[in-house]
Amino acid sequence: MTRVYVPRDAAARSVGADAVARALAADPRVQLVRNGSRGLLWLEPMIEVETAAGRVAYGPVAAADVPALLAAGLLDGGDHPLRLGLTEALPYLARQTRLTFARCGVIDPLDLDAYRAHGGMRGLAAAIALAPAEVVAQVTRSGLRGRGGAAFPAGVKWQTVLDTPAPQKYVVCNADEGDSGTFSDRMLMEGDPFVLIEGMIIAGLAVGATRGFIYLRSEYPDAARTLGEAIARAAAAGYLGDDVAGSGRAFHLELRIGAGSYVCGEETALLESLEGKRGVVRPRPPVPAVAGLLGAPTIVNNVGTLASVPVILDRGADAYAALGVGRSRGTIAFQLGGNVARGGLVEAPPGLTVRELVHDFGGGTASGRPVRAVQVGGPLGAYLPASALDVALDYEALAARGALLGHGGVVVFDDTVDMAKMARFALEFCAIESCGKCTPCRIGARRGVELVDQLVKSKRPADEAAVLRELCDTMTHASLCALGGMTAYPVESALRHFPEDFGL
After folding, report:
1. Residue 233's pLDDT is what?
2. What domains are defined for the chain?
3. Which terminus of the chain is more solvent-facing, meaning fewer CB atoms within 10 Å of its CB: N or C?
4. What is the pLDDT of residue 493?
5. Against a cut of 0.70, is the pTM above it?
6. Is 175:216 a contact under the CB 8 Å cutoff?
7. 248 contact partners, CB below 8 Å, separation of at least 6
8. What is d(CA 213, CA 174) in angstroms, rounded to the nearest whole number?
9. How far is Cα 311 from Cα 196, in angstroms, rounded to an integer?
C-alpha cells in the first residue's frame, strides 16, 4: 500500500478535504493518513503521496480529480496538471525555517509514536534532567518573547512565577486566537497538538505548577476535538498525571472552551472567564505571574510561545537565540492573508521584510493591482504604506515605525481600499468588543466612530482630525488594557499615511 496524506486541518476541510479523503480511501492501494496543513492555504486541499524520491504534492485537489489522478499514476508520483513536485522543494516551504511548525503537515497529529519519531518529547526529557531554575534560565537565555501580541520576555514571566512561593501554581495557555487574519495557533493545535502539550508540561515542571489549562476559543471545534484526544493520549502514555514521564513530578492538563469574547484574549479577562466569571479586564498590579488564576502565581502564554519551548530545550537556548535580529530571536509564524495571491503561514526568523513576505512569498495581490497598505499585528495593528514595505518584521523595527508585530498577522490591501473606512472599522470593532470596564475604551471607541463619520464629511477636516488624534491619545494612555490602548494604531497610521482618504 502507498501512503497518501490528506490534511485534516479546518482550512483544508472547508474546501473539501474530507471528500477527497473518502475518494482516495476507496482505492485498496491507498494507506490514508490525515495530516495537518503545511500552510500553503491557496493550494488546499494539498495532498501528498509517499514515493521513493520523497513526498510529492498535488493541489488544490477536489474529490472529482481523484480518478484522473489515480489513472495518471498518483501513487507513483506521476505527472498531472495538479502535480506540484517534491513537497520539501516547493519554494514557499524551502525558504522557511520550520522549528515550531516542523511537524505540521508532516505527521498524523494524533500519532504519538510519529511525534516522538520526529523529535517530539526530547525537549521534555532535557527539562526533566535539569533543575527547574535551569529550565527557566534556558528560556530566558533563548530570548523567547511572547508570541501573542505583547512580546513580553517569557523567561521574565516564568522567573517571577518560580520565585513566588505558593502551595499551588498554574500554567494557562491562551488559545483564544481572535485577531482577524491570524490562524497559526489553530494550525498548530490541529496539526501538532503534542508540541503544545509538551511545552506546557515543561513550563509546569520549570516553575512548580502541577495544573494546566488550555483556554480555547469556542469558534475552533476541530482544534477542540484534536486537543481533547491528544491530551487523553498523552495521559495514557504517562506524560500527564502524577508521575510525568517517570520524573516523580505531577502535571495535570485540562481543556476549557471560551465563551466567544474577543477581550478574553487579554490575559486577565481570560483568567476571569476561566474562573467562571464575566470576561472583564482586571486592574494591575498584581500581575498574573504573582496572583493569577484563583489568586495563585500563573504563567499565561499563548500557543506559539509554549510550543516554542520544546525546541529551545531540545536544541539549546543559544541555538535558538542565534536566529533573528536584535532583541527579536528565534522564529515567528507570520500569517499572510487579505488581498494576496498566495496566503498562508510562513515561519521565519525576525528580520524578514514586509516586501519579502508579501511579494516573494505571497506573490503580490490576488487582484493584480498595486499594494497600497499592509496591516501588521491584527485588527488593531498599524497600517504600513507601500513606501514602507522594506521595514523588517521584528519588534524594534516595527516599533520605530509606530507599529507592532502582535500575533504575526499580515493583511494586504490593494489600491482600491478606503483607509478612512478601515480606521472607522477599528473603532467600531473596539466599541463592539469592549468589556465595558474602563471609560476610554467603552465610550472613546463609540465617539471615535462618530468623529470619523464627521471628519469625512467636514468642511474643516483638520479640526476634526485634531480631535480624533486627541481621542486616540486618551485611549492609548488611559485604557485599562490593550484593546482600547491599541485601537489608536490603525486610526493614527491611516491618518498619517493616507490623509487624502479623510479629505485632509
Report:
1. 98
2. 2-92 (3.40.30.10), 112-322 (3.40.50.11540), 325-414 (3.10.20.600), 419-502 (1.20.1440.230)
3. N
4. 95
5. yes
6. yes
7. none
8. 9
9. 11
- Rounded Cα distance, 28 and 291, in Å: 57
Q: What pLDDT was estimated at residue 463?
A: 87
Q: What is the pLDDT of residues 350-402, one digit of tens each?
A: 999 999 999 999 999 999 999 999 999 988 899 999 999 999 999 999 999 89
- Cell readout for 427 is 473603532
Cβ(484)–Cβ(269) below 8 Å:
no
Largest CA distance in the chain: 73
Q: Which of 371, 444, 370 is nearest to 411 (CA)?
A: 371
Q: How far apart are CA 4 and CA 22, in angstroms?
A: 12
DSSP secondary structure letters along 384-421: EEGGGTTSBSSHHHHHHTT---TT-EEEEEETT--HHH
DSSP state of 287: P
Residues 6+ apart with CB under 8 A from 467: 451
Residue 201: exposure state from Cβ atoms within 10 A (0-12, 13-18, ≥19) = buried
- Other beta carbons within 10 angstroms of residue 370's beta carbon come to 11
Report how far residue 260's alpha carbon sits from residue 165's, in angstroms, rounded to the nearest whole number. Answer: 34
How confident is the model over 168-183, as pLDDT tens digits?
999 999 999 988 899 9
Rounded Cα gap, residues 288 and 298, in angstroms: 6
192 contact partners, CB below 8 Å, separation of at least 6: 36, 101, 103, 104, 107, 109, 115, 307
Grid cell in block for residue 283:
486592574
Cα 336 from Cα 360, distance rounded (Å):
12
